Each structure stands twice: as structure tokens, then as C-alpha cells.
Amino acid sequence: MDQSFWSFFFVGTTFALYIGIALKARAGSTDDFYVAGHDVHPAVNGMATAADWMSAASFLSMAGLIAFLGYGGSVYLMGWTGGYVLLALLLAPYLREFGKFTVPDFVGDRYYSTFARVVAVVCALFVSFTYIAGQMKGVGVAFSGFLGIPFEWGIVIGMVIVFFYAVLGGMKGITYTQVAQYCVLIFAYTVPAIFISIMITGNPIPQLGFISDVAGENRPMLEKLNTVVSDLGFLEYTSSSKSMIDVFCITAALMFGTAGLPHVIIRFFTVKSASAARVSAGYALVFIALLYTIAPAVGAFARLNFIDTVNEATYVTSDSYVLEAEAIEERGGTPVPAWFKSWEQTGLLSFEDKNGDGLMQIRGPNASDGIENEVIASRDIFVLANPEIANLPAWVIGLVVAGGLAAALSTAAGLLMVISSAVSHDLCRRTLFPTMTDRTELRVARVSAAGAVVAAGLLGLFASQLGFVAQVVAFAFGLAAASLFPIIFLGIFWKRMNKEGAITAMITGLISTFGYIYYFKFGGGTPDQWLFGVSPEGIGFVFMWLSLVVGVGVALVTKAPPQDVQDLVEDIRVPGTRKPHGIADGDMVPAPALSG
Amino acid sequence: MARSDSEVDARGYWAANLRLTTWLMVIWFVVSCGAGIVFREFLDQYSVGGAPMGFWFAQQGSIYVFVGLIFYYCVAMRRLERKFGLGED
């Protein structure tokens, strides 16, 4: 059985599974559609949140990114997990107690203002669309790279699958498909990692292999890696290339950004109580940590193995790899591994023999022997080539493809929910047509979910031509940290926070972060102009404080929020005491915590 | 299900919750930004298995502590809710 058979087999089987779940979990009401009936078990929601959160980037790119950055990759590991502590302690339980459907719902009701709601809708849409473009592009790449299906058709197939479970089942369908997708992606990630760990260190648990000695040698793996990379002129693996303040700000911006991302927050509306939301955040982090503690190990193993097997190896030029490799070995040389040749065709790896010696030299920027680097590797290669590097059978590659697709589709679905509910619920029901019935709203929700699927697909197609997706992701976290996090946080912890403060805070965070990132990413800004030496990736954290200070300042000089709203804040702080409040709730009755 | 505010000491419950949350946020900050970033170079002279300690905290340890913090918070809050008569039985 060859590799493309297995890829089709696993992708086909998992897709059939997702559609099967979609048909079973149809949404019958807006409650089902937006929040899965507020009745998802905390562990199930935790698993769904993990799939929702871990995107194509986490699955395919993160380990490779860490492999290249070494210590510098820690910002992603700490940033994307530490945010869950903020969610569990500061936001999730209270937002669940508040008992509505969306993030703009909270902003609009807590700040008794349609304008605030609309600003929050704009933030949520902006964050979600930038994010979803990357997911759809990932789906297209997976299809075109592994199944030989053109990029555009790959996106269309992905759209059809997401359409099925997002439009039919809403949050209910998405929840259960995300659970299935989590299982697929974590299995696909762990299996090759275990074998790589055994190969490099002899320890089957990657997290332990990470801190063990190299197999057959009496020195720690990381120490060897440090020596190997610094000999070739790279920075030591465990030391940092960025300034401490920049590392600090990037980590913090990712943490607060994670906590403010609407597609993560809405997952906590689906459990039955505030205390379930807390536990659920804990489960979510456990499921995420499983992949996030393996990733740095995979990154380090892959980097070490890559240099060990490729550096100074003899390049195999002809198409009949086996014959030429044998000939090279007979001459006493080391041929480049077969996986290098097979991945070269995808463009993820490339070799240019600059000094014409037929050997492949890997060199870093500080190389002392004057030899130029000849090998260029994409950061996605390490996860994708892992099964072959570890000599695993062809079906494991098929599994990794299915895992990558699961990661991309589950995140795309979560984002689609945010987009469709922002349109159908926050714009149509709560802003434009308040008299809409529940049944009409459900129909509008399905139509906007369908529209969002199409828009996301088109964006994925465009994004591949523009190629700035990675740049734009900095926007998503920065904006979530600087515009959404401060007002949600103040809305819960400071009763005195009012409409005027919230609107100025959101707009301050939005404009300052957007302007800064735009200037340095597209407007020709140079690093020496960075504010306090903070890069665009970390600036969301700085402007989050600006937004907090401006918001609090404005709130103090304007009048206190109405008594109704202050009572509402008291209610969401104490479990089981939430009552409807005139100004904030209008005709929308909040969902009580379910008992039992 | 919904109780009126007079039955429970909402103020006491909220104050206790804020105290707990503040302490946990301090630990959260010290472990991630402290051990993994600010004091990394100092901690790197010690090691966890074969990894420098500051580096290990940045790529492994902080994540384990995050998980521990959330579950501790869940348990402590349940205890608090029971104490103030807010438990969901």
C-alpha cells in the first residue's frame, strides 16, 4: 500500500465520521445552535476547546518553529497556554454566569449600548476573519500537497465538510466533531513523536526524552544540540536571540490575546454553570498541554537529527535513489537520507551546491569557517517528515495528513460560529430587528453560517495569493489583547466601569494596535523605531495597559452605570444568583445555570 | 435555583474569591514571566534532568504549573462555595 492510498483512506474515513456526527447532532433551537443547549459536559467541552484552539499552525508549524528558534520559541508555548489561566480565573466562569450567547452580547448588555455592541462585533469579525484565512489556506495546502488535488478544490472540499456540520448542527454539531477531531489530531501527533523520541534518546515519552541523554552517549540531548548548532554558527539552542523585554511582551500579548479570542470564549458558554466553566478550562489546558509539551521535544529532536543526517552528507542527484546511495556508501561517503529527496519535490526542502563539492553544508549566520549555508528547510517540514525520519510505515503519514486537516477544520468551525453569531445574533437580532422570533433567528443563523463558510473559502484562496497570512495573525492576538480583554475584565471586576469608558477603551486599543502593527508590517517601519523596543507581535500587551488606563480614566469622569447594570455585575460574581435586569437584558432572558 | 442576595454573604464570598485569585495570579506571573523569562539566565545554572532550569520552565515547567493552578482554583472555589452555601450540590 503506498502513501497516497493511506492518505485518502484516513482523510476519507475521518471526513465520513465528521459528517456522520453532523447528521446526528442537528440543532433545533437558537440555544442549540449558539451554545449547544448550555449542556455540554466540562471534559467534553475541554476536549472540543483544545481542538478549537489548536490550529493548523499549532499542529504543522509550531514544532518546526521551535526547532529553528530554540529558546525563542518559548513565547508561543507559554503564551498560548498561560492564557487559559486568565480565562479560568478571570473570564470564563463569569461570562457563563452572565448566560448569553456571544462576546458582543456581553459587551452590549454590560455596557447598555448598541454602539459598544457594534464595536465588539467589528473586533470579533476582524479577529476571526484574519484567523480563518490561515486555516482554509492550510486545508488547501494539505489537499494539494498530499492527495494531488488542486489547491482550490482542496479548499472547496474543506468548505463542504465544514458547511455540513456548522450549518446543520451549529455549536452542537461543532462540539462533537471537534471532540472527534481532537482524538484524530492528538493521536497523529503523538505516534511519530514517540518513535522519534525512542530513536534519539531511547525514552518513549517525548517530554522525558527532552531532558534525557542522547541514546548511547553519556551527555544530555540538549547539551549536544547546543554544541552542534553553535559549531555550525547558529545561536545556542537554549539561549535567546531577542531582548528580554520583547520576549516578555510577546508572551504576555499572546496570553491576554488568547484569553480575549471570541472563538475560545464562546466555548465556555456551552457548559452548564460557572463552576463547570472553570473545570472545563482546566480540562482544555490538559488536552492542549499534551501537544504543547510534546512540540518542544519534537522540535529539538528534529533539529538534532536533521543536522546529524543532512550536514556533510553527499547529495544524491539521480532519480534512482537506492542505486546511487549504495554507490556513495561503497565509496565511504554518507548519502542524504531518502526522506530529504522525497520532500524536496514539495518545495519544503531545498539544496543548492554553492561550493560545488557535492556535499550538503548547513551553516548558521555566525559560521567561522567561511562556508555558505546550502540547505533551506521550511518550518512545516519537521512534523510532516517525522514519520519518514523515524522509519515509520506509510500509513503513519496518512494519519498525519488527517491530523493536520482535523486541526485546521476544527479551528475553522469555531471561528465560523463567531462570525455567523455576530451577524445573525448581534447585528440582526439584537441591533437591527429586535422583534425577530427565535425560529427566524435560527434560519438567519444558518444562512449567515453558510455565508461565512463561503467568505472564509474565498479568503483562503486570496490569502494564498497574497501570502501575508502569517503577518496578519499578529493582528488577531494584538487586537484581542488590547481591545476585547480589558473591557471584558473591567466589566466583571469593576462595577463602576461605564459605557463611555468601555467605548473609548475599545477604540483606543483597536486603533493604537492596528496602527502600530500596520506601520511596522506594511508601512515600512524599522526595528529601531520600536516603542520601548517592543516588536509588533508584543505591542498588544503595551496597548492593553493604555486601553485599561484610558477606559478607567474616562469612566471616572463620566457618570456611573445605571443601578440595573451594577446589580447585574453583582449577580454574575456569585453563582446561582443571576436574575434578569431591565436595561441590560431587555426581552432576552439569561439562561440559568442548569442543575444536576 | 436562584437564591436572593440576602440569603448568602455575597460580599464575603467575593472578597475571599478575589484574595484567592490574586494569589494564584501572582504564582502564574512568577512562574511564567519570572522563571521562564526574567530569571531564566540565573536559573539556567541549575538543571532539570538534562535541561537548563530556566529553559525547562519556559518550554515545559510553566505549562505544568498552569494546569495545576487551574485545578487548584477549581477545588478551592468549590470549597469556598460550600462554605458560603452556594454549592451546586
Describe this structure in words.
The complex is a heterodimer of chains A (596) and B (89). Chain A is 70% helix and 2% strand. With 596 residues, chain A is mainly α. In chain A, strands 1-3 form a two-stranded antiparallel sheet. In chain A, strands 2-4 form a two-stranded antiparallel sheet. Chain B is mainly α and 89 residues long. In chain B, strands 1-2 form a two-stranded antiparallel sheet. Chain B is elongated and about 55 Å long.
Largest sheet of chain B: 2 strands, antiparallel
Number of DSSP strands of chain A?
Answer: 4
Mean model confidence by pLDDT of chain B: 84
What is the C-alpha radius of gyration of chain B, as a whole number of Å? 18 Å
Overall structural class of chain B, as computed from helix and strand content, comes to mainly alpha
First-to-last CA distance of chain B? 11 Å
Mean pLDDT of chain A: 85
Spans where pLDDT lies below 50 across 5 or more residues of chain A:
none
Major β-sheet strand ordering of chain A? 1-3
- The radius of gyration computed from the alpha-carbon positions of chain A, rounded to a whole number of angstroms, is 25 Å
Number of helices of chain B: 3
Q: What oligomeric assembly is this protein in?
A: heterodimer
The percent of residues in helical segments of chain A reads: over 70%
The outline of chain B comes out as elongated
* Series of H and E elements of chain B: HHEEH
